[in-house]
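Structural prep section.
Before we set up the soaks we want a predicted structure of the protein with zinc ion in place, mainly to decide which crystallisation condition to try first. Input record follows.
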Amino acid sequence: MNNADDLFSRLARSPFRQRFRLGRAEYEMAHSKGESLLRQHAAELIARRLAPAEPPNDGKQTPMRGHPVFIAQHATATCCRGCLSQWHQIAQHQPLSAEQQAYVVGVLMQWISGQMQQPAPPARVIRSKPQPDDDPQLTLW
Ligand SMILES: [Zn+2]
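Run finished without errors. Recording the tokens verbatim:
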């Protein structure tokens, strides 16, 4: 397992991962819940959606918006067991140990706290027309 600094510097070199930012709604949600409640949510979400040996819908189980933890998962490559294996060297097809779950939660909280040190993002802009060059997965906010 890589240390967190190394992980974050590798993530910083991935244009795909770098595109993820908290939207206004998620930023406000993170702000109002506070760190300890968010950490508890992160632990619950990871235990339920990522930790099983074969998570339901693996590869598509993490929404693109709606909770700060979901966005943090995409940004930190902890969204599914495939990304967890590729980026974090955590083997697929076996349940995550308590220690591995705590590691993932730590990574998520580090990313969220970095986002919360930045100014609130602007409210979502609704575009009149879809832009042809947009990645369809990323046009949701
Ligand atoms: Zn993934």
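Observations: The mean pLDDT is 90.
Flagged for discussion at group meeting.
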